[in-house]
From TrEMBL:
This is Methylenetetrahydrofolate--tRNA-(uracil-5-)-methyltransferase TrmFO. It is found in: Cytoplasm. Its cofactor is FAD. The gene is trmFO. Keywords: Cytoplasm, FAD, Flavoprotein, Methyltransferase, NAD, NADP, Transferase, tRNA processing. Its EC number is 2.1.1.74. GO terms for biological process: tRNA methylation; tRNA wobble uridine modification. It comes from the Bacteria. The keyword Cytoplasm applies. It comes from Celeribacter ethanolicus.
Length: 448
C-alpha cells in the first residue's frame, strides 16, 4: 500500500465516480467489488454502474430543476456517470434515460482501462484501521459489512425498502390500445415527444385494478425488519393503501395525454411505460415499484388495458436499503468522525437517487485525493446542488428524523428579493440555478 493509494469499496454509481475523479487527479485507486463473487438480490451482473431500479436520471432541465442542475454540475466536474449517460441516452421527454446495459458496459470499460485504477474482486467485511478508504456500498451493503458499520457507529443500521419496477417486452404490448406520447408532448424531437407508451383506463377498470392490487399476495418482511419506505420509491400497493385515488394523482395521472386512438375520450387513469433500452424492445412500467409476489404481479398487471398479453423481461421485487445517520456520524469531508481514514459516499450516506449518489461519490473522490496530496478541499458552497446535498447529510438535516433525500430547491439558501409561492417559482428557480452555476464554477477554478 503506497502513501497515495485510495481504496474504494463498491462499484456502483458513487464508487465508480469516486474512483474516476481520484484517478484523474493522479491517485492510485484500488476499487473493491464483491460482485459477482457475492451476489445481491437486485443486481444482475458484476459490472460497474449497474442500474438496478429505474433507467432514468430524471429531469435534465438545468434551469428549472434541481436534479437537472446536479447533472450540469457533474458535467462541469468531468463526471464519468454523466458523460456515460449522455453517450447512451434514450428518448424520454424532458428526462435523461439511458440504455442500462450499454451504460454499465461503458462505465466498466472506462474504469478498467484507466492506468491509475486496479480492481480487486472480493468482499470487504471490516472497517480498516489503516490507509485511506471510501465505502460506497450503497443500499445493498452486505450483512457482514453492515454489522461492522453498526458496531463502529454504535447505532443500529437504519433501513427502508426499495422496490423495483417490472420491465415489459415492447412487442407484447397491444398497440391497438396503447399509444406513444410524452406527457404534454415534451421534447424537441418527435422521438422525444413519443418516448412513453400509454395505457388508458376507464373508471371501472381503475377501480377493479385497485381492488386486485389491494387483495394481491405480497412478500412478507423478515422478523425485526420495519417498512420505512422512502416516499419517492413507494410500492404501488402501499400508495393504494393510502387512498383509492392516490395512484390516479401519482404515477397513473391522466393529465397532459391524449389517446391517439380515441382523441375525444378522456382517460380516468393512465399507466405509462418508459423505454428501457436503445433498441426500444424493453419498457419499464413507470412508478410501478412493487412487493407483490411474482404470480400476483402477472395477474394484476395484465389487467392494464394494452398489457393483457404482456410478457415480462423482469418482474418487480423488493430489497432492504441501508443508510447511515450521517448528520451524527460524518464530518463535512464525509469522513467517519470516529475513524477519519474512512469516508462514506452514495446512498449509504442518506442521499436518494442515481445522480445524488454519484455526486456524493464525486465529492468523496476529490476530497480523498486532495487529502492524500496534502491539499485542503472545502465542500462546494451550499448555494450549489452538490453543496446543498452534502450540507444536508453532514449537518443540515435533523438527526432524529433523518431520512434519505433527493436533491431539491428546498435544500438551497433562499434568494432575497424574489417572489415566493407558485407564481414566482419559475423566476426563483432560474435564480437558484444561475447562482449555483456561478458558484460551482468558482469552486472548480479554485482547485486548478
Amino acid at each position: 500500500m503506497t502513501e497515495h493509494t485510495l481504496h474504494i469499496v463498491g462499484g456502483g454509481m458513487a464508487g465508480s465516480e469516486a474512483a474516476w475523479q481520484a484517478a484523474n487527479l493522479g491517485i492510485k485507486v484500488v476499487l473493491h467489488e464483491m460482485r459477482p463473487e457475492v451476489e445481491t438480490f437486485a443486481h444482475q451482473s458484476g459490472k460497474f454502474g449497474e442500474m438496478v431500479c429505474s433507467n432514468s436520471f430524471r429531469s435534465d432541465d438545468d434551469e428549472q430543476n434541481a436534479v437537472g442542475l446536479l447533472h450540469w454540475e457533474m458535467r462541469a466536474a468531468n463526471g464519468l456517470i454523466m458523460a456515460t449517460a449522455d453517450k447512451h441516452k434514450l428518448p424520454a421527454g424532458g428526462a435523461l434515460a439511458v440504455d442500462r446495459e450499454a451504460f454499465a458496459d461503458h462505465v466498466t470499460a472506462q474504469l478498467e482501462a484507466h492506468p491509475n485504477i486496479s480492481v480487486d474482486y472480493g468482499e470487504i467485511t471490516e472497517l480498516p484501521s489503516e490507509g485511506m478508504w471510501i465505502f460506497a456500498t450503497g443500499p445493498l451493503t452486505s450483512p457482514a459489512l453492515g454489522e461492522a458499520i453498526a458496531k463502529e457507529t454504535g447505532a443500529d443500521r437504519l433501513a427502508f425498502f426499495d422496490a423495483i419496477a417490472p420491465i415489459v417486452y415492447a412487442e407484447s404490448v397491444n398497440m391497438d390500445v396503447a399509444w406513444l406520447q410524452s406527457r404534454y408532448d415534451k421534447g424537441e424531437t418527435e422521438e422525444e415527444q413519443k418516448a412513453y407508451l400509454n395505457c388508458p383506463m376507464t373508471k371501472d377498470q381503475y377501480e377493479a385494478f385497485i381492488d386486485a392490487l389491494l387483495a394481491a399476495d405480497k412478500t412478507e418482511f423478515h422478523e425485526g425488519e420495519t417498512a420505512k419506505y422512502f416516499d419517492g420509491c413507494l410500492p404501488i400497493e402501499v400508495m393504494a393503501e393510502r387512498g383509492r385515488e392516490t395512484l390516479r394523482h401519482g404515477p397513473m395521472k391522466p393529465i397532459g395525454l391524449t389517446n391517439a386512438h380515441k382523441p375525444e375520450d378522456k382517460a380516468y387513469a393512465v399507466v405509462q411505460l418508459r423505454r428501457d433500452n436503445a433498441l426500444g424492445t424493453l419498457y419499464n412500467i413507470v412508478g410501478f415499484q412493487t412487493k407483490m409476489k411474482y404470480g400476483a404481479q402477472t395477474e394484476v398487471f395484465k389487467m392494464i388495458p394494452g398489457l393483457e398479453n404482456a410478457s415480462f423481461a423482469r418482474l418487480g421485487g423488493i430489497h432492504r436499503n441501508t443508510f447511515l445517520n450521517s448528520p451524527t456520524l460524518l464530518d463535512d469531508q464525509m469522513r467517519l468522525k470516529s475513524r477519519p481514514n474512512i469516508r462514506f459516499a452514495g446512498q449509504v450516506t442518506g442521499v436518494e437517487g442515481y445522480v445524488e449518489s454519484a455526486a456524493m461519490g464525486l465529492l468523496a473522490g476529490r476530497m480523498a485525493a486532495a487529502e492524500l496530496l496534502g491539499r485542503d478541499l472545502p465542500p462546494p458552497p451550499f448555494t450549489t446542488a452538490m453543496g446543498a446535498l452534502i450540507n444536508h447529510i453532514t449537518g443540515g438535516a435533523e438527526a432524529k428524523t433523518f431520512q434519505p433525500m433527493n436533491v431539491n430547491f428546498g435544500l438551497f439558501p433562499p434568494l432575497d428579493g424574489l417572489r415566493g409561492g407558485r407564481k414566482g417559482r419559475k423566476e426563483r428557480y432560474k435564480g437558484y440555478t444561475d447562482r449555483a452555476k456561478e458558484d460551482f464554477n468558482q469552486w472548480l477554478e479554485e482547485q486548478s
